Task: structure prediction
Amino acid sequence: IYCNGSIFEKYSINISHNTIRHNKTGSAGGIYLYMMDATVTNNLLWKNRITSSGTYVSSGISLGGYTFKKHFARIYNNTLVFNYRELGGDYSFLSVLFGDGSEDISIANCIFWGQESNLIYPQSTIVNYSCIQGGYSSGTGNISENPNFVDAANGNFNLLQGSLGIDAGIDVGL
Result:
């Protein structure tokens, strides 16, 4: 999904309840949003791939231009799994990229799993009550244990009974 709000003074988008999978692109394989207020909720981003060897590319969610007009992004209740890059680079398998360091980004109740790296950039971005493979130091209530999907190989990313991710999130007002 690609959305560019740069020609509008105040542009916003709500991306919700989608399965975004098996996409191939140069630099942003799942969702790319530019210069707009964004709410991204309850989406599955699965097996999206990028082919660029550039440094700052993402096969998950990418946001750009956020310091120009002070837009916000709310990323809640999303599952990003097995997204990858075909070529090498500094940040392979990036899950979420906020390219210009916006401080008005909120991420909560998400699962980042199955990538070689679940780097969230910039690393000062606060992520709360999420399941992040390999862990993440900026935020509260995050876990790094396997989310225990029902059948990830066949696309069933519901959580099995006993998963530490069940009822581990917070109310984000949706």
Notes: The CA atoms of residues 76 and 122 lie 18 Å apart.
